[in-house]
Amino acid sequence: MYAFEFERPGSLDAAVKALQEEDAQALGGGQTLIPTLKQRLAMPSKLVSLKGIAELQGIAQEGDVLKVGGGSTHGAVARETKGIFAGLSLMASKIGDPAVRNRGTMGGSLANNDPAACYPAALMATRGTVVTNTREIAAEEYFQGLFTTALEEGEIITSIRFPLPEKSNYQKFEQPASRFPLVGVFVAKYGDRVGVGVTGASEDGVFAWKEAEEALAGNFAPEAVDDLWVSAEGMMSDLHGTAEYRAHLVKVMTKRAVAAAE
Amino acid sequence: MPKDHGIGASTKRREDVRFLTGDGHYTDDINLHGQAYVHFLRSDVAHGRLVSVETEEAAKMPGVLRIFTGKDFEAVGSIPCGWLITSRDGQPMQEPPHPVLAQGKVRHVGDPIAAVVAETYEQARDAAEAIMVEIEDLPAVIDMKQALAEGATKVHDDLKDNLCYDWGFVEENREAVDKAIKEAHHVTTLELRNQRLVANPMEPRVAVGDYARHNDESTLYTTSQNPHVIRLLMGAFVLGIPEHKLRVAAPDVGGGFGSKIFHYAEEAFCTFAAKQLRRPVKWTSSRAEAFISDAQGRDHVTKIELALDKDNNFTALRTETYANMGAYLSTFSTSVPTWLHGTLMAGNYKTPLIYVNVKAVFTNTVPVDAYRGAGRPEATYQLERVIDKAARELGVDPLALRRQNFVTEFPYATPVAVEYDTGDYNATLDKLEEIADLKGFEARRKESEAKGKLRGLGVNCYIEACGIAPSNLVGQLGARAGLYESATVRVNATGGLVVMTGSHSHGQGHETTFPQVIADMIGIDANMVEIEHGDTANTPMGMGTYGSRSIAVGGSAMVRAAEKVIAKAKKIAAHMMEASEGDIELKDGQFTVAGTDKSLAWGDVTLAAYVPHNYPLEELEPGLEETAFYDPSNFTYPAGAYACEVEVDPETGKVTVERFAAADDFGNVINPMIVEGQVHGGIAQGVGQALLESCVYDETGQLLTGTYMDYAMPRAGDLPSYVVDHSCRTPCTHNPLGVKGCGEAGAIASPPTVVNAVIDALQSGGHKVDHIDMPVSPARVWQAMQ
Amino acid sequence: MPQVSMTVNGKPATGDVEGRTLLVQFLRDTLHLTGTHVGCDTSQCGACLVHVDGEAIKACSIFALEVEGAEVTTIEGMANADGSLNTIQQAFQDHHGLQCGFCTPGMVMSAAALLKENPKPSETEIRDYLQGNICRCTGYHNIVKAILAASGQETAIAAE
Fold first, then answer.
1. What does the radius of gyration of chain C's CA atoms come to, in whole angstroms?
2. Beta carbons within 10 angstroms of residue B136's beta carbon
3. Cβ–Cβ below 8 Å for C41 and B20
4. Number of domains in chain C
5. The domain over range A167-260 is classified in CATH as 3.30.390.50
6. pLDDT tens digit string along B226-259?
7. Per the CB < 8 Å rule, is A40 touching B652?
8. Which of B309, B429, B460, B767 is deepest in the core (most CB within 10 A)?
9. The CATH number of the domain where B231 resides is what?
10. Contact A4 C60 (CB under 8 A)
11. Handedness of CA A30, A35, A41, A44 (dihedral sign)
12. At a CB cut-off of 8 Å and minimum separation 6, what does B440 contact?
């Protein structure tokens, strides 16, 4: 790793200020950033740990919305959303491994926007909102391609707001080595609509499978997507799976998520 | 009633206590006073000409002690290859030099160009980034067949081409085999790839070089399976340090699986630099570095043809294999696709005619060498896959086809130059049918089908050759080393013993099993026996641990040394009890005189050996310490049968292993618990190869699987529990313990078992799929079903 | 250079570190607690697993300064007060749950965290929990068995 200064501010304001320094970078759980630093692929002048900031903590239901603090670990999300938001709890419980879940945070994951991260699928399916220290960003505006988001330099995700669905589920088909999703599909059913968020598959990162959303809104059953198919065009292709295979898995995982939704 | 001590007892491992409390002592735990750190600047291109390496600016950076490049090693020897293979035309293999640091060209991603030694690791790394390297890119040679094509770019400019050797075995059989295949009633042909793997012991390699000015002695602490071999290769061939001035020590080693047999450039570098700088120099590999610097395994492409007569008897077998050597010849690389592979092509079967052709090829990839099984997994995979395919083509039961062709009379001389001393292949297959509950398979298949899954059963046999020997034979075959093992048994005055063995333990549990043998021989508690290994300073010249040889060869050496000790102790006892030597018996730690009630305890005699007051000094030297070197007269031949049941998810292609059973014949077993653990680990690596693992380069020679994010390591959730059995025992006829070796069986036998099962599952679902190359990943299975 | 203080295995520990110093480096290099190992660079192998304030954490993926003031337990702090192996350690020895020993400290720490959360885990739950602990020697069979035994359950696992 290149050398850098380390700072652990105690408040959001202090963190925002610390991040104003040139090449300062926020550190969430570090489960992606630290391996990146070890490879010397990043050269921050300062790392600003968000771990000690009370404003980023807390998971709470607010009416028909679930608010998750940006600093919430995957472990906390898994535990504390059980019974409130089954699909999200299930998703969080399957990210990485137990030790990674004890460090990695939802804010960190969404800020990084790895094309194979899990949370983007949930945020997209629910059409949730990313809340930062300066504004609120709707899911569809937030994701802007691989590792790219609407976040400005120094902007911190303070919380994530998920409209609570009636039913939800997440199906992850794992890439055999990293255990990240080769394809992950989150399905969220609401009274008047259904959201289908797909991660791991597309060259543009997370996307909503709109045809399936429409079909499922009319009939929330696996058969509803039988006649739909996802184009392999624009899907990622690598040694773990071709574009055709990923496109195929999107449909299979969608059907399974619908069948398992609770 | 299982035994509770001695040979045959599942004695708990004494080494566990230190490992379980964080008290293990691995090479990276060694930090010497004044130690400096080296970082290797490695090539990021697969093939290129080194135009210039400018280190001047980098050398001025903070903490830098010195920067070494290939120039510094021009007067230093090349890293040697330990086995000379002769081609079909009688010519020796093409053997290019392998410099410690690249000279003139870089030949694979990871080839070390320069080495920065600095006060801290990060300083060395900072300075490495400041070295200016100019490389003229050359086309990378990655695919083996393309490497052999007319006009292909040469990996080594001074060689004729990229063909290391073209080996025929047995060359005299070639025409007869061709004729038999031409005239056969049925020929089954299969083309397959035994994919490249990375051994991935959990402990990355580490080397610490040290130099003592006062006696001009160099010391290397290294993560090695065979410190004496490293001392010999590095001392004699690379650095020119006589062995009495060079100590190599491998303390606790965190797994090897073959990858820590070989002598590596980093070891020579640290030893060399420590002397130059008069400072200890340490290198700790990162995992990413391990992926581009540890020798890799397998990587064979094979066409196999099996000929059968109208009664389904195997009549001939012919194979043509391309074996990837990578960019340089690693220590035992050349022997793996030849003598460790061709000699096993008969398998468990009495096929009368066999011809094996192997073309070894240089490519711009990391060198390939032995990985758990080394040659034998490749042989078993081809053979057991082609037999399965033949059974399907002929519409016969795959087990019956195997049984019909089994070797049943021993000793059996194969047409590929080895003689099986003993075995009972029907017995292990019968045992497998029982422990795997093969009768219950159809019912389980129906249950799977009810869940929408395809279930398949794969069964196959295997034989392997362990404890490779004897030295005079392997010498004729091109080996540049002996393959004996050594032991010194030192008895202390008060009766305790220390066994200094040339075998090395890096997970196999020698510290527990070796004393079990001694305890049985003398009749004392195993806790009176201590094992020392891994340090050339206090153990006799040994060849180390690989090829499942430790108990068969190292254990035998220890038995021979202990026999000498006991013989001498009996002479002392005879003198003390005024009896004839021939009447002395040793049992339960007591010397007795036949026909009398005279007795002496073990400790009375050992004390007399060192306090020789009442002692036959005119006939016997005092002391009780003996050394033996054991050179086996033949290989040992463990064999057995494995079964696996898989479920295939037809929607995704995902394969899950539902049941796995192994019936092995290892001859006599010293510690069943440890033997079973070895089989478990081997199965996990075999299933890993079959379903998950693959080392992949793109066409430019960039490694696509350079971390655990892309190289799929088997995890607990990928594997089932295993049923293993070793109750079928045909003891080895030519070593004193009747043991055969168990370390590699699982890795050898499992890959075809799993693939056979997957093919069976797909066939049961109506998919006309004959073969899928490993790893049988979900994507490949799905593709095959389309 | 900043200073960091924490409690390690019940004893106060203080040292100078850089911002980039990882907890595993602080443990190994400064405190000479070499039982915590490094087996990969990507936070996957788990050989470095320790407990920080009672939670399983990969010491290779957390900076020493992030652990300021925390309670850290490493493999060196797991044995009973009299030095004998604790229940989990003993079960690993009894069931041959280790071979080369390199992944073992992480496995024991992971098993301890699991049993704290889930005192009677099933075989499937154990295998699932060990997702982040790679062992190359044992094929996991005997590790699973050891953890079942340490939890006071039957060790006859599925296929046996």
1. 16
2. 10
3. no
4. 2
5. yes
6. 999 999 999 999 999 999 999 999 999 999 999 9
7. no
8. B460
9. 3.90.1170.50
10. no
11. positive
12. none
